[in-house]
Amino acid sequence: MRLDKLTTKFQQALADAQSLALGNDNGFIEPQHLLAALLQQEDGGSASLLARAGVNVAALKSSLTKAIERLPKVEGQGG
Predict the structure, then answer these.
(1) pTM surpassing 0.90?
(2) What separation in angstroms does the CA of 41 have from each of 1, 4, 17, 45, 76?
C-alpha cells in the first residue's frame, strides 16, 4: 500500500490506529482500531457523516472500545 496516495486525514487516522493497537498490546491494526481512530478525529467528517445517516455514534464508540478490549493481546518480551 502506498501511503502517499492516501489523504492526509486517512494517513493520520492510520497512524492513530497503529498507536491504539500498540497501546492495547494488539499485534495487528484491525478494522476496529481504524474506525475508532476515524471517529476520534475532531476535524474529521466520519462521526458527523455517520450521525447524519442515523448511527448512534456514542454507542458505536462504546462498542468499538469493548471490541478492541476483546482482541488478542501480545504477551511476553520479544526481540
Answers:
(1) no
(2) 22, 20, 11, 8, 32
Cell of 15: 497512524
Q: Decide: 30 and 71 in contact? Cβ < 8 Å.
A: yes
* DSSP category for residue 28: S
DSSP helix/strand/coil, 56: coil
**Cα 79 from Cα 60, distance rounded (Å):** 36
CA–CA gap between residue 75 and residue 36 (Å, rounded)? 23
As given in the structure block, the three cell numbers for residue 18 are 497503529
31 touches 52 (CB < 8 A) = no
| pLDDT tens digits along 20-70 | 999 999 999 999 999 999 999 988 899 999 999 999 999 999 999 999 999
